[in-house]
Amino acid sequence: MTSKNDDNNIIVSTELTIINKLGLHARAASKLAQLCQKFSAKITLFLEDKEADANSIMAIMLLAGGQGKRVKVTAQGVDAPAALSAISKLISDKFDENE
Predict the structure, then answer these.
(1) Which domain holds residue 27?
(2) How many CA atoms lie within 13 A of 99 on its CB side?
(3) Which of the following is catalytic: 13, 22, 25, 42?
(4) How does DSSP classify residue 31?
(5) How many of the other CB atoms lie within 10 Å of CB of 38?
(6) 25 is catalytic
(7) CATH at 35
(8) CA–CA separation, 27 vs 31, rounded Å?
(9) Structural domain count, the chain
């Protein structure tokens, strides 16, 4: 995880592996977007040469993040560390799916 603090504008970033069987499909994208909308931080996902606003279900789905893909998550704002922690937990918990 990398972090930068510039005049109370906190920026944190980490790379996570999508481990759930279906990847960033509709239900997972919805859960991720709903979680990100709880934070004031601007959260962006990067996968290969694409990026997505993490508040947008459609943008997340267009990343086509399948199982085993590495996604970089960057959060910028006062609650960025909390946002990144919550996102990391959701992904490591396989979006609360069985597989």
Answers:
(1) 2-96
(2) 5
(3) 25
(4) H
(5) 11
(6) yes
(7) 3.30.1340.10
(8) 6
(9) 1
Q: Would you put residue 56 in left (φ > 0), alpha (ψ -120 to 50) or beta?
A: beta
- Supply the pTM of this predicted model: 0.91
19-35 as b/e, with b when 16 or more CB fall inside 10 Å?
A: ebeebbbeebbebbbeb
Q: How does pLDDT run across 25-81, given as a tens digit for each residue?
A: 999 999 999 999 999 999 999 999 999 999 999 999 999 999 999 999 999 999 999
Q: For residue 9, what pLDDT is reported?
A: 84
- Between CA 69 and CA 31 the distance in angstroms is 18
CA angle at 73 for the pair 11 and 58, rounded to the nearest 5°: 125
In the chain, the amino acid numbered 79 is D
Residue type, 66: G
Q: Which residue bears the tokens 């959060």?
A: 75
